């Protein structure tokens, strides 16, 4: 299995989808060939039921997060696989437990007020400009500030960091595998985080960084490993959330009746978050590896294969969702954007709270009839994540 797995891991998302709007392409492929073999050991799965059956099949590994696949794929030494493994449900991981505890509802309830104030601060700045970029002026700083506060970054350092991470060329995940980068910006960010962790470990606090530093100490892991765990949280809590807010804002702009419904009945916003996630998820694919042979829709997929489960397509499968191309506020959908089953996202509660707060503030402050959106561009590295790079919004009074 080992050789086959390593071979199948190479290669990204097939170049078959329009990066700006992949949904028409998804539909064509889903209707014609819901499971297809991209190469001898790579498969693409487009339908909801197949996605669910794969996601909960014990013979399938999520992102290589189990002992067998992890060691076959990366070897024991890869920091990336070790970091992801630390958050996986397979083992009784102390690090995963700390994050689950830190993001539990009772611990998050105090965050709502701070999130609201943060969102209000940034929307006020946007309004005073008259013309603003939704991504860099709102979604980026709001989501970064929120996850930084939960991690325990000192308030005074947040503006400096927002500016610094805005210049990171390759995002957070690549840093996990290269803690000694050449790039001066990457270096500066890592030096900041290393100092931050060193200081925190002297006086542990009531935040996620302290919990993870503690769990690393107890597990005999270094502060460097705590740094990797934090980088993953920045990726999940900042990149994912920023992309989701961008996707959700555009979806509402393009569906003004839904926007106005939410404006008239803001109590429906929290419910609508799941529908927005179904409609346009920031996570478009899940990467699975078969540990044993499996059968999906009468097709045999042999052990050691890679399966790309297209979450974006499954979320618009008409056999699961009636009129899937429509946003329905009261649908309450069982979407797959957070994954499914034991591996489901452990930050989902935070994501719901944070995005509901953002949309409450946006909708109460922005009148859709006076908004004009132009110059939207999409991040071009269309791999797993989907999100806008820029959304220029003008306000006509
Ligand atoms: C809209 C926002 C988000 C989406 C769509 C999302 C989606 C996902 C998905 C699809 C997975 C993998 C599930 C699988 O393996 O099958 C995941 C795992 C995870 N997510 Fe999220 N997520 C979001 C926000 C967050 C936030 C805010 C945090 C917390 C800081 C977070 C932390 C994590 C962690 C720690 C994992 C586990 C990673 C692992 O298993 O190694 N996520 N998320």
Write up this protein:
The chain has 397 residues and is an alpha+beta fold. The protein has one domain (2-390): Cytochrome p450, CATH 1.10.630. 53% of the residues lie in helices and 12% in strands. Helix 13 (208-218) packs antiparallel against helix 14 (223-254). The termini are far apart. The mean pLDDT is 90. Residues 55, 62-63, 65, 84, 87-88, 99, 147, 233, 236-237, 240-241, 244, 281-283, 286, 337-339, 343, 345-347, 350-351 line the site of protoporphyrin IX containing FE.
Per the principal axes of the C-alpha atoms, what is the gross shape? globular
Strand count: 10
Distance between the termini: 63 Å
SSE ordering: HHEEHEHHHHHEHHHHHHHHEEEEHHEE
The DSSP helix count reads: 18
Q: Give the names of the bound compounds.
A: protoporphyrin IX containing FE
**Taking strands numbered 1, 2, ... along the chain, how are they ordered across the largest sheet?**
1-2-8-5-3
Hey, roughly how much beta strand do the residues contain?
5-15%
Query: Which fold name fills CATH's third level, the topology?
Result: Cytochrome p450
Name of the CATH homologous superfamily:
Cytochrome P450
Helix content: 40-55%
> What class do helices, strands and sheet pairing give?
alpha+beta
Largest sheet: 5 strands, mixed
What is the mean pLDDT?
A: 90
User: CATH class, please?
Assistant: Mainly Alpha
| Low-confidence sequence ranges | none
């Amino acid at each position: 299995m080992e050789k086959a797995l390593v071979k199948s891991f190479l290669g990204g998302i097939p170049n078959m989808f329009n990066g700006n709007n992949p949904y028409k392409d998804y539909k064509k492929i889903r209707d014609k060939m819901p499971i297809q073999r991209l190469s001898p050991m790579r498969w693409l799965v487009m339908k909801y039921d197949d996605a669910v059956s794969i996601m909960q099949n014990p013979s399938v590994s999520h992102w290589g997060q189990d002992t067998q696949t992890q060691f076959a794929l990366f070897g024991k030494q890869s920091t990336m696989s070790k970091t992801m493994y630390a958050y996986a449900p397979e083992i009784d991981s102390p690090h995963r437990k700390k994050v689950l505890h830190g993001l539990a509802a009772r611990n998050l309830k105090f965050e709502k007020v701070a999130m609201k104030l943060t969102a209000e601060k940034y929307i006020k700045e946007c309004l005073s400009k008259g013309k603003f970029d939704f991504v860099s002026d709102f979604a980026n700083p709001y989501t970064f500030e929120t996850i930084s506060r939960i991690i325990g970054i000192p308030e005074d350092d947040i503006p400096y960091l927002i500016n610094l991470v805005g210049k990171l060329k390759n995002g957070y995940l690549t840093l996990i595998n290269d803690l000694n980068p050449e790039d001066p910006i990457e270096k500066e960010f890592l030096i900041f985080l290393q100092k931050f962790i060193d200081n925190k470990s002297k006086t542990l606090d009531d935040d996620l960084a302290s919990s993870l530093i503690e769990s690393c100490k107890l597990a005999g892991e270094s502060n460097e490993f705590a740094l990797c765990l934090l980088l993953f949280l920045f990726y999940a809590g900042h990149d994912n959330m920023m992309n989701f807010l961008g996707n959700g804002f555009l979806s509402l702009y393009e569906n003004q009746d839904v926007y106005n419904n939410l404006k008239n009945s803001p109590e429906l916003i929290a419910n609508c978050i799941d529908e927005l996630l179904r409609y346009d998820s920031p996570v478009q694919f899940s990467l699975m590896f078969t540990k044993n042979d499996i059968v999906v829709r009468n097709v045999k997929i042999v052990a050691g294969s890679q399966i790309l489960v297209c979450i974006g397509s499954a979320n618009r499968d008409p056999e699961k969702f009636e009129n899937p191309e429509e946003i329905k506020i009261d649908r309450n959908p069982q979407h797959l954007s957070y994954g499914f089953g034991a591996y489901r996202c452990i930050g989902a509660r935070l994501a719901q709270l944070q995005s509901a707060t953002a949309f409450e503030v946006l909708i109460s402050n922005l009148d859709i009839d006076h908004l004009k959106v132009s110059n939207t561009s999409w991040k071009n590295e269309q791999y797993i994540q989907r999100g806008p790079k820029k959304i220029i919004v003008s306000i006509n009074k």
